[in-house]
Amino acid sequence: MLRTHRRKSVLAAAALVATTMLLTACQGEDTEDAGKSTGATASDSAAKGKSDDGGSGTGAGSGSESQSGEKGSKSGTVSGKWVGTVSYLAPGKYTVTDANDAEQAFFTSEDTDIQGAGKICGDADGQAATPCTEEELEAAAKKGFGATVDVKDGVAVSIIEDHTDSGTGAGNGTGEGERSGLFSGTLGYMAPGKYSLSRDGNERAFFTGTDTVINGAGWVCGDAETVTPCTEEDLEAAAKKGGIAVAVQVEDGVAVTIDEEHN
Question: What pLDDT is recorded for position 17?
Fold first, then answer.
């Protein structure tokens, strides 16, 4: 009887061990399968996340940089007045290069006031400038001509051809105080109330009067951000230093306006 009970106990113990081993094996397989499944899911998720991040990051980044770069490369925020040689770049786009070889690009619009004095259009001997077309401006700019260009937000408000550049009286020295027109060049001091404009080796004298309007842009007076009314004393001091480019509207040898070139 005792032997039978031990035998049953042994058999029961063996069955328990077998059951335990079977359950352990099953759990191991489940765990392995779960691990594989989890690993695959994590891998897929990581791959998807990498793809999503790379796609949106690269696309948005490249687009943003390109847009900001293009915007920055345009001169849409440039304003001021430049005196120099106008050249053609593309339809509706030109440059003006001053005496120091500094080049500024600008655009034209249907509202741009284009006035010629022999090279864009009109007569070099005429006292008044002649309104010109965009087509005439483009043809003249491909050859190059001197002008004063007033720019606002990158677009030319006016392009006024320089009478000096048209060959009127060129090379006749400083004895042309009686002439009228728009002239440009480097400002020089001669005597109280008397100044000169030098350009391409030619020098032209002019006088100032009590009504002469003098506008500075940082060198005669004021700063480069805004056009500032200047005094005769400011003009004289700046002219004595030299190296300042100006555009001067002259009538009968006396300056009506003196506009410092924007720097």
Answer: 52
Dihedral (Cα; 208, 104, 100, 170), 10-degree rounding: -50
Question: Residue 121 in 3-state DSSP?
Answer: coil
The whole-angstrom separation of Cα 78 and Cα 153 is 5
CB proximity list for 117: less than 8 A, separation 6 or greater: 123, 124, 126, 129, 130, 161, 162, 163, 165, 166, 168, 181, 182
Which pair of tokens denotes residue 15? Answer: 């069955």
Query: Any idea what the Cα angle at residue 155 is, between residues 230 and 223, rounded to 5°?
Result: 25
The pTM of the full predicted model, rounded to 2 decimals, is 0.47
Q: Which two tokens stand for residue 160?
A: 């006024």
The string of pLDDT tens digits covering residues 88-119 is 999 999 999 887 788 899 999 999 999 988 89
152 contact partners, CB below 8 Å, separation of at least 6 = 79
- Reported as a single tens digit per residue, the pLDDT across 193-243 is 899 998 877 888 899 998 999 999 889 998 888 889 999 999 999 999 988
> CA-to-CA distance for 143 and 158, rounded, in angstroms?
19
Beta bridge partners of 158: 113, 150
Cα–Cα distance for residue pair 232/245, rounded to 1 Å:
16
Buried b (16+ CB within 10 A) or exposed e, 176-210: beebebbbbbbbbbeeebbbbbebeebbbbbbbee
Residue position matching structure tokens 């690009």: 105
Within 8 A by CB and 6+ apart from 240, the residues are 189
Name 46's bridge partners. Answer: none
Let me know: does 160 contact 140? Beta carbons within 8 Å: no
